[in-house]
Automatic annotation (TrEMBL):
Record's subcellular location: Cell membrane; Membrane
Keyword Cytoplasm: no
GO molecular function: intracellularly calcium-gated chloride channel activity; protein dimerization activity
UniProt keyword list: Cell membrane, Glycoprotein, Membrane, Transmembrane, Transmembrane helix
Name of this chain's protein: Anoctamin
Main location: membrane
Keyword Glycoprotein: yes
Pfam families: Anoct_dimer, Anoctamin
Gene that encodes it: ANO5
GO biological process, one term: plasma membrane repair
InterPro entries: Anoct_dimer (IPR032394), Anoctamin (IPR007632), Anoctamin_TM (IPR049452)
Family named by the database record: Belongs to the anoctamin family.
Length: 865
């Protein structure tokens, strides 16, 4: 019996005449625009879910959508139902008018911009024209059902691209009611997904990503994108941005435009940063400071004060020889130039991005989008929760309204939660500092006592070892805190009940960015601006919690430790992010397919294949932007300490573009297309970070690097005409009398040593103002403050001039917008005029016929008389 039943089902399935890649209903004509899936629920809430689904699907049919259900017996896992949805022509044109979609009315006669003079050189980077511009440019107008003759409708089945079709269907799904509970109307597919009434809702991909579709299926744009965009062998090629926009919608499209533009601009910064690094590498051997530190007759004879209390011993300055050479790689004359250059670069990047965005708004018909979104894109959750209605001053229509008093408690909870988590980040950073202070003595004791560690000591000093382990520990803490905060911030934002999707994303963006800013940058700020600044001096050290002595910088400066911290966090974040983005969905999809495909004799249909993919989610793009903006902070805020940061970011982004493209085309369900005319609140965040970066880099050069003290010594204190920096190291170290050590700070092992040296500008013990800051200290401090003021004013002046000189909208784009508006008005005018003439002609013909009929009636009456 089981065999016969199996055979009967196989025969029934063959009657459908469908291939596993079909994107049509069983009739092979109606295209599938959306798919819902669900499984039977045997729990006590199962009947409620069945009733909700029944009511929801009845209401969907009332809107004009056509549904077809695939029984669970025909699915691979034997338990999942699939509801396929098709939007017929009448539904599409109705909601295209409601959503204000712009559709083509005539092919554009505006000539393309002038060709790039370097197009011959950039030829290998270009894509084929058929891929880059798959469709010609058109004049467009908002679609209306009563003017269908105006639009270029050659084939009703292909007039609306698949992205527009799934956007329309999702709009209906998000507002379709499914019942009433507690006197409130319940509606929206999101509520049904949250209650597990449906397990998933998604539009279909065009077909397989590794092969083109066969007729009668439309062109497989997924295959074209994978072939020309998602392959790693195409890392050097430009992106097919128009095809991305057509397949995934404007919101995802503009993200890849931004990422590509940012990567292109990074290439210029990377070249300059690499040149500065090479300069530091070539001038390493000629650096006077590292030469003196490494010299056995100079650095080998300077005895330094212990770096921790009691357990640490005195040490020779030349033990930091290698660290001082590495420090020169990033702490040299080019550091000032690169800091100023990056201040100008970030301004050029943001100003040129404004232009690119304005050009994109024109090319993608998004010039008037913001007003449309404010009127139409209310969140269903907001509408469901609102008990009040208010007159919209713009539309003059009653719309849902949430009083401020109802939101204040959630705003207070939200603010308190964000403050609590940022405090937790600060607490974790303090814990890492305590770790560094605690283990430093251990590292110092072990490395000094073990003779077998002699080769290691030449490379890893106790300071560098502590810095490396502390940075790694800090990075692990960052990842853990991020994991938990992401969940909490999303829940709190929902509780605030934002009005529109844009408000929801803006609120979540602010919370996540504030947290991640503190989480990723707090330890770097500590090393850059606090470590080694409040140490005190031997005999009168500064203590944290009156227990741990504050950390000191290496005699060559704290910049090498700042570079180490920045490199580990930035490089680790990028590696972890790319591995997670590539492996996580791949592993989940493999496991899901492995569990699902238990009945290999069944047809593994197109909707089942997509169902087994990972969901991109509403916040998928949000996290991509957040990752890019955090990287932007690493590149701009602390770039004076690490000129190779733009190069690392460039290499990461080249990989990131292809990883994102690969996972979107192969590992994720197709996201619902949505519109966006800009990168939103992220642009304001970028502007804020650009302004902050000028100050941070100025302070890094002044207070973290050793450039200003060297310049002061060069011009004011040097006595050697041939080598002005000779003697600088000895000059920068003060003298301390061993007898002045307190019992708490003196080394446990007593030695016959009279004095030791420490990094500071203080009077020697024989001076009447011993251990007080000397005159050189004040000269250096004045020079540092002067440098900060001058650098900030120069960079801000250049930024202001560049922002004033570079227009937000290019002149040619302004002219093209005016031309298109003029032509659109003319086309509409001619259409209405011709329609009016046609109506008048028809009316006159009808009038003439009516007159003839009346005359015939009169003649007939006369003849009968």
């Amino acid at each position: 019996k089981r065999y016969n039943l199996f055979l009967r089902r196989r025969l029934m399935f063959k009657k459908c005449l469908q291939s596993k890649d079909s994107i049509f209903f069983r009739d092979g004509v109606r295209q599938i625009d959306f798919v819902l899936s669900y499984v039977d629920d045997i729990k006590k809430e199962g009947d409620i879910k069945v009733e909700r689904r029944r009511e929801f699907e009845i209401n969907l049919r009332k809107t004009g959508l056509e549904l077809e259900t695939e029984d669970k017996r025909d699915s691979e896992d034997g338990k999942t139902y699939f509801v396929k949805i098709h939007a017929p022509w009448e539904v599409l044109i109705t909601y295209a008018e409601v959503l204000g979609m712009k559709m083509p009315i005539r092919e554009s006669d505006i000539p393309p911009p002038d060709a790039n003079p370097f197009s011959c050189v950039l030829g290998p980077l270009k894509l084929k024209k058929a891929v880059k511009h798959p469709h010609p440019e058109y004049f467009t107008a908002q679609f209306t059902r009563h003017r269908q003759e105006l639009f270029l409708i050659e084939d009703e089945s292909t007039f609306f691209p698949t992205s527009a079709r799934n956007r329309i269907v999702y709009y209906i799904l998000s507002r379709c009611p499914f019942g009433t509970e507690e006197g409130k109307k319940r509606f929206g597919i999101e509520r049904l997904l949250n209650s597990k009434t449906y397990s998933s809702a998604f539009p279909l991909h065009d077909g397989q990503y590794w092969k083109p579709s066969e007729p009668p299926s439309p062109v497989n744009e997924r295959y074209i994108l994978h072939k020309n965009w998602a392959r790693f062998s195409y890392f050097y090629k430009e992106q097919p941005l128009n095809l991305i926009r057509r397949y995934y919608g404007e919101k995802i499209g503009i993200y890849f435009v931004f990422l590509g533009f940012y990567t292109e601009m990074l290439s210029y910064a990377a070249v300059v940063g690499l040149a500065c690094f090479i300069y530091g590498l070539l001038s390493m051997e000629g650096d006077s400071s590292s030469r003196e530190i490494c010299d056995p007759e100079i650095g080998g004879q300077i005895l330094m004060c212990p770096l921790c209390d009691q357990l640490c011993d005195y040490w020779r300055l030349n033990t930091t020889c290698l660290a001082s050479k590495f420090s020169h790689l990033f702490d040299n004359e080019s550091t000032v130039f690169f800091a100023i250059f990056m201040g100008i670069w970030v301004t050029l990047f943001l100003e040129f991005w404004k232009q690119r965005q304005a050009k994109l708004e024109y090319e993608w018909d998004m010039v008037d989008f913001e007003e449309e979104q404010q009127q139409l894109q209310l969140r269903p959750e907001f509408e469901a929760m609102c008990k009040h209605r208010k007159l919209n001053a713009v539309t003059k229509e009653m719309e849902p309204h949430m009083p401020l008093c109802s939101r204040i408690p959630w705003y207070l909870l939200s603010g308190a939660t964000v403050a609590l988590w940022m405090s937790l980040v600060i607490a974790c950073m303090v814990a890492v500092i305590v770790y560094r202070l605690s283990v430093y003595a251990t590292f110092a004791t072990v490395m000094e006592s073990e003779a077998t560690l002699e080769p290691v000591r030449s490379i890893l000093t106790p300071q560098l070892t502590t810095s490396l382990t502390g940075s790694c520990l800090n990075f692990i803490v960052i990842l853990i805190l991020n994991f938990f905060y992401e969940k909490i911030s999303a829940w709190i934002t929902k509780m605030e009940i934002p009005r529109t999707y844009q408000e929801y994303e803006s609120s979540l963006t602010l919370k996540m960015f504030l947290f991640q800013f503190v989480n990723y940058y707090s330890s770097i700020f500590y090393v850059a601006f606090f470590k080694g600044k409040i140490v005190g001096y031997p005999g009168k050290y500064t203590y944290m919690f009156n227990i741990w002595r504050s950390e000191e910088c290496d005699p060559a400066g704290c910049l090498i430790e700042l570079t180490t911290q920045l490199t580990i966090i930035m490089f680790g974040k990028q590696i972890f992010g790319n591995v997670k983005e590539a492996i996580y969905p791949l592993a989940l999809n493999w496991w899901r397919r492995r569990k699902t495909r238990t009945n290999s004799e069944k047809l593994y249909s197109r909707w089942e294949q997509d169902h087994d993919l990972e969901s991109f989610g509403n916040l998928g793009l949000f996290y991509e932007y957040l990752e890019t903006v955090i990287q932007f902070g690493f590149v701009t805020l602390f770039v004076a300490s690490f000129p190779l940061a733009p190069l690392l970011a460039l290499l990461n982004n080249i990989i990131e573009i292809r990883v994102d493209a690969w996972k979107l085309t192969t590992q994720y369900r197709r996201p619902v297309a949505s519109k966006a005319h800009s990168i939103g609140v992220w642009q304001d965040i970028l502007y804020g970070m650009a302004v902050l970066s000028v100050a941070t880099n100025a302070f890094i050069v002044a207070f973290t690097s050793d450039i200003i003290p060297r310049l002061v010594y060069f011009y004011a204190y040097s006595t050697n005409a041939t080598d002005p920096l000779k003697g600088y190291i000895n000059n920068s170290l003060s003298v301390f009398l061993i007898a002045d050590f307190t019992n708490r700070t003196a080394p446990a092992e007593k030695r016959g040593i009279l004095t030791c040296r420490y990094r500071d500008y203080r009077y020697p013990p024989e001076h009447e103002s011993k251990y007080s800051p000397n005159m050189q200290f004040w000269h250096v401090l004045a020079a540092k403050m002067t440098f900060i003021i001058v650098m900030e004013h120069v960079v801000f002046l250049v930024k202001f001039l560049l922002a004033w000189m570079i227009p937000d909208v290019p002149k040619d784009v302004v002219e093209r917008i005016k031309r298109e508006k003029l032509m659109t008005v003319k086309i509409l005018h001619d259409f209405e005029l011709n329609k009016l003439k046609e109506n008048l002609r028809l009316n006159s013909d009808l009038f003439a016929k009516e007159v003839m009929i009346q005359e015939n009636k009169v003649q007939l009456a006369k003849s009968t008389m």
